[in-house]
Amino acid sequence: MQTDEALAQGIQQGRTPDLGVLVERHYSLLKGYLYRMTNGNLLLSEDMAQETFLRALRNIHQYQYPRPFKAWLYAIATNLVRHHFEQADTRHTITASEMDWHNLTDAAPLPEAQLVISEATRQVTHALAQLPLHQREAIVLRYYEEMPLAQIAEVLKIPEGTVKSRLSIGLRRLRELMEESA
Asked: Are 31 and 45 in contact (CB under 8 A)?
């Protein structure tokens, strides 16, 4: 199996089928990341995932091996999210009732367990949506995308110490928000 980095180099050399492999590998995870970053907006996350891959293809000449392809791709996605929230017409707070909750759980547990999971998921997602974007980015990349600190720093284009600080402050605030809603 070829690495993401080798596939990206293949696209740079004109091997277009390599793009399909990268999309297949990363689309679902990228959409999940964007779903969390857009406060549970499924349609927007799908649009942004597609736009991320379009921009990656359009700018594939800027990808430099051996940089991890995933970090490069997520940097593009993160910039899309930032741009979206910077636009004046999108600067509003999404309430819990506006969020799309039905796609947050993966498996179909027993009904009583599903209620507990659904409520916990709602609380976490609602609390995450209240965090500043820069803290939410760090938390989602670390705990949902399971990226190491160095890769998060690369995606966000900030020092690793800043990532640690954003995680610490964001997690403390997330905990406070969860306690307030309990």
From this structure: yes
pLDDT over threshold 90, residue 118: no
C-beta separation of 39 from 94 below 8 A: yes
The answer to whether domain 106-182 has CATH 1.10.10.10 is yes
Closest-CA residue to 178 (of 103, 119, 116, 94): 119
Give residue limits of the domains in the chain. Answer: 1-95, 106-182
Task: Tally helices (H) and strands (E) across the chain.
Answer: 8, 0
CATH class for the region spanning 1-95: mainly alpha
Beta carbons of 30 and 49 less than 8 angstroms apart: yes
Please say whether the beta carbons of 147 and 155 come within 8 A.
yes
The reported pLDDT for the residue numbered 104 is 41
pLDDT in tens, 97-110: 344 434 443 444 44
